[in-house]
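Q: I'm writing up a methods section and want to include an example of the input and output format. Could you take the sequence below and give the corresponding predicted structure tokens, formatted cleanly so I can copy it straight into the document?
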Amino acid sequence: MTTASPPSRDAGPAGTTDREDGTQEHDVAASPVAKRALLVASGATFLAVLDTTVVNIAFPDLRADFPDASLAQLTWVVTAYTVVFAALLAVAGRIADVIGRKKLFLFSTALFTVASLLSGAAVGVPMLIAARALQGVAAAGMIPSALGLVLQHTPAARRQVALGVWGAVGSMAAAVGPSLGGLLVDAWGWRSVFLINLPLGIVIVAGAARLSGDTAGGRRLPDPLGTLALALGVGGVVFGVTQGTDWGWGSGRVVGLLTGGAVLLAAALLLSRRHVAPAIEWDLWRSRSFAATNVTSLLFGAAMYSYLLSTLLFLNAVWGYSELKAGLAVTPGAFSAAIGALVVGRRVGPQSQWAAALFGSLLFGGSCAAMYLLLGTEQRYLGVWLPIGVVAGIGIGAALTAISNAATASLAPERFASGTGLMMTARQIGGALGIAVLAAVLERYDVLDDQGYLRVFLACAIGSVAAAAVAPAIRAGARKSA
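A: Here is the clean output for your methods example:
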């Protein structure tokens, strides 16, 4: 299998190490350009994932600055980003594979930096919401093109290690967002949550500009009508699920969003079956392994995103922790997630990624079940919460990295960004479903009642076990590539 992207012109000769089977393996660390690609891609991914959770902790500060804004309006500060991000991920992956990963990466990262400046300088809630939506557009382009850059500049034999590092950064960003956000808001106010992106974004763009670009692969831009239907369909479903609890699941707006989104998704699928440059590449799902990674990603995403939010809410509402203290309390799980990701990336072979996804999902599911069984109103952080949270983090890092590795192994190199965009879209849709389940469960209980949160932890355990049940289906791709 050959890649449509040429080797980087500024890459020096890579070092090699002898493997047990007698073949030689390229050493990523020996190539400066491989390290640079991984560094800028990981930095961009950290920013994109971080901004899905870092703003949650700033809500009290936002309400103080904008007292005339309703809570419903302020929730759009989060929703505008997540909905647009989810809606455009698959589309952005296709575009990256057509126009070039570097070109889309540079544009998206620069746009994200500008949108962060606009968010931090917002003089009103409407401007902040619009800037957050623009951030979502940029983030959707950053993720698949970032991974494409890593895979383009990394020797095939060492891609799994690079993916482990990339996965570790993404896992840390999702988990460390609340604590980092709490520290920033506590010290400098809510605007610092966005303005911190400016120097980082500039450094990332400067580093990526030094990388060589990939040549055009002769592929056409996706069908514009099907692409529009796909983006609006995913956006409608995610937005409808996100607002279901606030607006009521039987309300006309929610039913309209869910129904309209489903119809548009069906239209995008039908158009994609007939178009020479489809918005959705059906043939990717002919791979049993790739299809299984998408289902696993959706189920695990539902459990993970619900867990990340419910743990903060539990610590704040039931145990009485401040927002900052609650964010710091979950931080050890962020670091253990990075460890889990690195171990899978460095130590687990391609043919065993399905087992790592299975193990990570079960480890995380078991941790959620332990929280359901052992937590209560009594504060037991060191004896109960901390060890469970660390184990849960290991499970999250291991599962996310194994799913990404397995998906990449089932794709041709010239379709890395397209496939990654689809897989990440599945995870974001799963996350929206998980948050909706969390909101629906908590709505039945008093906000200070621990029973609602415990039932959410039980639902997270069930979702993660369901992801583990699908993971063995990934073996088909592992056997083929072994």
